[in-house]
Target: AraC family transcriptional regulator
Amino acid sequence: MKASKYSYKATMQGLASLSVTNVGWEKTAPNHKWGPGIRDHYLIHYIIAGKGNYRFSDHKTQQLSAGDAFLIYPNTEISYQADADEPWEYVWVGFTGSDAMTVLSATDFCPDVPFLKNIPYGDRVQHEIKHLYHACGNQFSHAVEMAGRLYTLLSVFMQGATKVHSTDSASGNVQKAVEYINCNYAYPITVENIASYVGISRSQLFRSFRDQDMLSPKEYLSDYRIRQACHLLEDTGLSITAIANSVGFDNSLYFSKVFHHAKGMSPTQYRKRHQIHGFDT
Model:
């Protein structure tokens, strides 16, 4: 069987809530392997044909075949390899965003068992991922359309979930914290404010985020603000000071320092590299 592949990788900043980083299809060569390594985003594969092995946390290995799906969690060492005799063919979609963890927690995926066997809604999954691929593009409108289709895809996994999802304390705390950050990031909120809203101590909030394999609350807040700043730099002509104020920084110099640390360049450099509309700064 001849190996072949088509794929798309996003080149612009997506939505902070949920955005597609890559999507595609591949008919792999025998013994084709990725890893060991880590990804910086979530990645779902649905296997159309063939089989292979997925190695995940603590070096556990699971053989998977047509009709199965597997999820790669961010910053988790994994590898996956096609079978020598029946190499797999699969579709995949990679994504990130503040909503990702909350949505995935309502599916049958979990870090200890990041795969689903013989899912009865596989045809719908394949269909939605192909729709995602056909919606790809490098305009902001494409990013919005892809995000919408990604929500639809994830809802298929949610609707097909077989386990009862009771919101445990850690995931519930994180969900409330994320909701508060999403609504209040433009104000000078602190981790103490977030913990007070959730109704727990700062240390409990920190442990809840860690239990869900997330950034710390402080890191998440900063990352969310920088993501929003990137949208404003790309899509508006606001001054750097105005953008800093708009995303919760009352000092533009400190904002520039945090932005440079996160992106490896100043806000002005980022704007010159990414801005489409050509606003005067």
Notes: Confidence is low (pLDDT under 50) at residues 277-281. The first strand starts at residue 4 and ends at 9. The two ends are 54 Å apart (CA to CA).
